[in-house]
Design goal:
about 160 residues, Thiol Ester Dehydrase, Chain A, alpha+beta, seven-stranded mixed beta sheet
Amino acid sequence: METVQCTSELCEAVRAWLSYFEKDLHDAVHGMTMPRLVTADLEERSFELAYTLQPWMRNPAGVVHGGITATLLDQTMGLLVGSLIRDHGITPTINLNVSYLRTAPIGITLHVRARALYVGRNIATVTAEAFEEGHSDTLIASASGSFYTGGTEGRAPVTAQP
């Protein structure tokens, strides 16, 4: 396993969700995308996940489908919010805005760095940037989103409870 740089509280929450994705959602998009934690910082309310872009993610042009790119951005931002609120619930997306800047070839490792700008009682606002590993200065896509944080008690899987 890779060495991960992060604060233990946030890492614990993220790892619980990633374990749930791998074990219980292996046949759903969350598990099929196989996210890996790269770094996390509770004080900054941010983390970075890495995804290996797989052949099933391609569009007819042979690059990653825009919907998959949006999914990876959305999934990363939602996972950040869910890990920060730590009340064992899911955080549905209310609004998602994606800007596509470059194509992403199959086979690369795509990093998605997300940062929570605001986490309130009912709403969280998050931004994310996607880039190829080793090229953080060249964005492939960026996104902003709003996520519902209220009333989530009892909706998360038991295995995801940190």
